[in-house]
Hints:
By secondary structure, this protein is of the alpha+beta class. The chain has six helices and 14 strands. The longest helix has 17 residues, at 30-46. It is globular. The protein starts with a strand and ends with a strand. The site of biotinyl-5-AMP has 30 residues, from α3, β5, β8 and β9.
Amino acid sequence: MRLWLSNLAIAPAVIRMINPTASSIITTSVAARWNLMLLLAYRRVGQPSPRVVRLQSVTSTQDVARALPIGSIVVADHQTAGRGRLDHKWESPSGTALLVSFVLAPDPILSLTVGVAAAEACGSGVRLKWPNDLLLDGGKIGGVLIEATPIKAVCGIGINLTWAPEGGAKLNQDRDQLLERVRAQLDRWTSASANEVLARWRELSVTLGRRVRVEVSGKAIEGTAEDIGPQGELIVDGRPVTFGSVTHL
Ligand code: BT5
């Protein structure tokens, strides 16, 4: 489609309606050309692509990501102080894992959303253990760590690729290809409704239906993991558990 803008007084408004990227636009008016350039620049700024920061060595990708705006991604080859929840350590020799943090908008069930996206990206066979473990054949291949403020959530994902600790598992996939799949799956699942996320989490779960022990602040609860609630809490014998470490009995 061709559009001559020379005599149009309100060129930007017209351009916005017709989607200039899909059209060939010719104008002889300097003002209209200038408006067009500004408009195209505005469109780029208005829809920024995610900023990816790639680092060789870092304390934790979380430390770098928390200073960055929503949409940022931080990937590192090595972490000197990789962490899990509750001051747990995340171990990973240099270059053996996907170590990444995404800065996302906060959401009450984000931990489950990121778990679903990561499991889908890893592929068939990968399952979820409440609240945030990725398992393959019963061994832990990865974990999700959410560190949130009221305005943003830093979502860390660690996935073992060519090394795993004793009792853990590894995925043996290419790191950058896996990162691209995680990005795509995060786009998909952060756009899905909470009900869709919870339904997919239930399908991928190895926790539901099992007898479990949950340790919360030094106290242990045992019972059957019956379901997850609307906020992502685990329902154990009718009681909601919002955080803690789960052992499958
Ligand atoms: C987690 O915590 O599983 C969340 C791990 C998140 C790691 C990523 S890497 C990128 C980003 N930057 C960070 O610093 N962290 C995130 P949690 O549920 O607390 O589990 C931690 C426990 O998993 C440890 O106490 C160990 O028992 C075990 N563990 C440590 N390293 C592991 C590994 N590479 N593979 C499997 N298990 C591991």
